[in-house]
Automatic annotation (TrEMBL):
<feature type="region of interest" description="Disordered">
    <location>
        <begin position="227"/>
        <end position="278"/>
    </location>
</feature>
<keyword id="KW-0732">Signal</keyword>
<feature type="compositionally biased region" description="Acidic residues">
    <location>
        <begin position="266"/>
        <end position="278"/>
    </location>
</feature>
<feature type="signal peptide">
    <location>
        <begin position="1"/>
        <end position="23"/>
    </location>
</feature>
<protein>
    <recommendedName>
        <fullName>Lipoprotein</fullName>
    </recommendedName>
</protein>
<feature type="compositionally biased region" description="Low complexity">
    <location>
        <begin position="239"/>
        <end position="248"/>
    </location>
</feature>
Length: 278
């Protein structure tokens, strides 16, 4: 157990060491921020459940742990897209920031998406964008959220979702970083309720709900960081208001798939995991 949790504890410790508090004076100098949210290439979703935890061996029977993790990964992909994850973090954070300068003068997210069109296309690996393109919109500062790793893991028969990444703010003139907040959310380490991987295999929306909960928690942390209490000489709000930013709803449900023929006893349908315990 100790060896399995060490990498996640190391990430948490590293996160604390790399933080940089946003000073009120630095925020006072911001005139026109732009928000970017992205997921690094290869960040996930990943399943570290069946290969890393022998508690499921009897349940898997003839199904190899490597194949079981592959099947679970497919289910996680079906639960929520990379774009939905990154967008949830951006929109939730921005919607909870106070209606005060400079948050009332954020560059229109639609314009940011337009200039970064090739970067934001979901099928393209989400490497760092060309920030100078955003500067052409009048932005002087970038607030960027990056997800580096996410998925499910398990320890001693208890599974859960995890999420790791960071937020940062930097000026476009000189790329001076004025705020950084790494995060590492881990439902297993936090002792949250068991997220049964076999139930997720039958109902992937359970993983979506877990991810939504963690993303909203990260957003609350970001909002607190981005509203320092030591502000002083912030310029007065201008007459124009920032573009509205609406939290997107879930994607429309697709038509139900035709009912699959029940496989013979003790055999699994292609791509499926065993049924959860009653």
């Amino acid at each position: 157990m100790t060896q399995r949790i060490l990498p996640f504890l190391a990430l948490l410790l590293a996160s604390g060491c790399a933080s940089q508090r946003l000073a009120g004076a630095d925020l006072d100098r911001v005139q026109r921020p732009a928000f970017i949210s992205r997921i690094e290439d290869g960040a996930g979703p990943k399943s570290h459940v069946f290969r890393d935890d022998s508690a499921y061996r009897n349940k898997l029977k003839k199904l190899e742990p490597v194949e079981a993790d592959r099947r679970l990964t497919v289910k996680l992909l079906q639960a929520v897209t990379r774009f939905e994850i990154s967008e949830r973090l951006r929109v939730t954070t921005l919607s909870q920031l106070p209606r005060e300068f400079p948050w009332t003068h954020v560059v229109d997210p639609a314009r940011v998406a337009s200039v970064l069109e090739s970067f934001l296309v979901e099928e393209v690996p989400a490497n760092a964008p060309d920030y100078d393109l955003v500067a052409s919109l009048g932005a002087d500062t970038i607030v960027e959220f990056v997800i580096q790793d996410y998925g499910m893991r398990s320890e001693d028969g208890r599974a859960g979702a995890y999420l790791r990444g960071y937020g940062r703010m930097f000026t476009l003139d000189g790329r001076t970083e004025v705020w950084r907040r790494p995060f590492a959310m881990d439902q297993v380490a936090e002792g949250k309720e068991h997220l049964d991987p076999f139930k997720v295999g039958k109902d992937p929306s359970l993983f979506r709900a877990a991810m939504t909960s963690m993303l909203d928690e990260v957003a609350r942390m970001f909002v607190k960081d981005l509203t320092p209490t030591d502000r002083g000489g912030a310029p007065p709000p201008r007459a124009s208001a920032a573009a509205s930013d609406v939290v997107p709803g879930k994607a429309g449900a697709s038509a139900p798939a035709p009912e699959a023929t029940k496989p013979p006893e003790d055999e699994l349908a292609p791509g499926e995991l065993p049924d959860p315990d009653p």
